[in-house]
């Protein structure tokens, strides 16, 4: 029997200390590939690497929400977010609205693929209590949505202020609030016990509960998880996009590039 407080009771130990980095890498790979087969292989490999066949366990919902929030905050700065210049190069000829549409579609498709991949990889006859598969899928879905939120802010010219880590922390707050960044970034807004931190934990628990549908009997869970993930990610993307659109000077068209300045005249020359 394991003693209370031992490492075996610590979900971070059971799931692996590098889970945030592994899931961030998965999000980048899933976003870069359109192959459903490759997404299934990547997701299954991440689940195996994260849990090594173990299960994530918590003592109560409060502990689960706190652990998930810690993992998301650790994962967010590692996500591969494209800036506006990169997005415009990758989607040439698109207006801001067309580019936002493309990002929401791509993220919804990636979220659906992850849900289907987790369900197909497990094919369990019953839903387990809280396996590492659910934790991995929940973090992957949140990672996809955080990447979407960050890139929508880039599209609409409303990048959060601060360093890359501070911006991603602000986008975690935006995910929890389901609206664009309106608060200063940094650890204060997600301090333990703060209202926003509690909202984040509640939303993560709800997301984990929905992720459990991917582990339904046979392949029905994979189909249900894919449909649910696609719908939820699309809905979140539209809510963030609508909020940013109301505040953005670049909602209708791209802001003109700054004009090149002529070199200063050299003294003594006409």
What does this structure look like?
It is a single chain. The chain is mainly alpha-helical and 270 residues long. It is 62% helix and 0% strand. It is built from ten helices and no strands. The protein has helices at 11-15, 19-32, 36-51, 61-75, 84-90, 96-122, 132-155, 164-177, 195-211, 220-247. Helix 2 (19-32) packs across helix 4 (61-75), helix 4 (61-75) crosses helix 7 and helix 6 runs antiparallel to helix 10 (220-247). It is globular and about 50 Å long. The model is unreliable at 1-16 and 120-130 (pLDDT under 50).
Short structural description:
This protein is an all-alpha fold. The protein is 62% helix and 0% strand.
Shape category: globular
Kindly report the average pLDDT value: 74
The proportion of residues forming helix, as a percent range, comes to 55-70%
Structural class: mainly alpha
How many beta-strand segments? 0
What does the oligomeric state look like here?
single chain
Keywords:
270 residues; mainly alpha; 10 helices
Strands, helices and their partners?
Blueprint: H1 11-15, H2 19-32, H3 36-51, H4 61-75, H5 84-90, H6 96-122, H7 132-155, H8 164-177, H9 195-211, H10 220-247
Helix pairs in contact: 2-3, 2-4, 2-7, 3-6, 3-7, 4-7, 4-9, 6-7, 6-10, 7-8, 7-9, 7-10, 8-9
């Amino acid at each position: 029997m394991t003693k209370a407080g031992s490492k075996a009771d610590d979900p971070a130990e059971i799931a692996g200390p590098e889970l945030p980095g592994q899931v961030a890498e998965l999000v980048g790979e899933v976003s870069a590939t359109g192959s459903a087969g490759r997404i299934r292989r990547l997701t299954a490999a991440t689940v195996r690497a994260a849990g090594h066949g173990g299960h994530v366990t918590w003592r109560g919902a409060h502990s689960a929400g706190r652990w998930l929030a810690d993992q998301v905050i650790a994962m967010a700065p590692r996500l591969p977010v494209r800036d506006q210049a990169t997005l415009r190069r990758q989607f040439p000829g698109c207006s801001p609205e067309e580019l936002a549409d493309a990002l929401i579609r791509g993220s919804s498709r990636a979220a659906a693929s992850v849900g289907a991949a987790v369900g197909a990889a497990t094919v369990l006859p019953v839903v387990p209590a809280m396996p590492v598969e659910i934790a991995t899928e929940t973090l992957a879905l949140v990672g996809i949505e955080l990447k979407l939120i960050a890139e929508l802010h880039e599209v609409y010219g409303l990048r959060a202020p601060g360093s890359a880590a501070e911006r991603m922390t602000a986008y975690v707050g935006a995910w929890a609030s389901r609206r664009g960044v309106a608060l200063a970034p940094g650890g204060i807004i997600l301090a333990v016990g703060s209202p926003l931190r509690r909202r984040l934990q509640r939303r993560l628990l709800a997301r984990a509960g929905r992720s459990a549908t991917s582990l339904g009997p046979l392949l029905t869970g994979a189909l249900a998880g894919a449909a649910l993930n696609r719908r939820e990610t699309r809905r979140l993307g539209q809510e963030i996009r609508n909020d940013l659109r109301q505040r953005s000077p670049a909602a209708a068209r791209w802001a003109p590039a700054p004009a090149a300045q002529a070199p200063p005249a050299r003294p003594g020359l006409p």
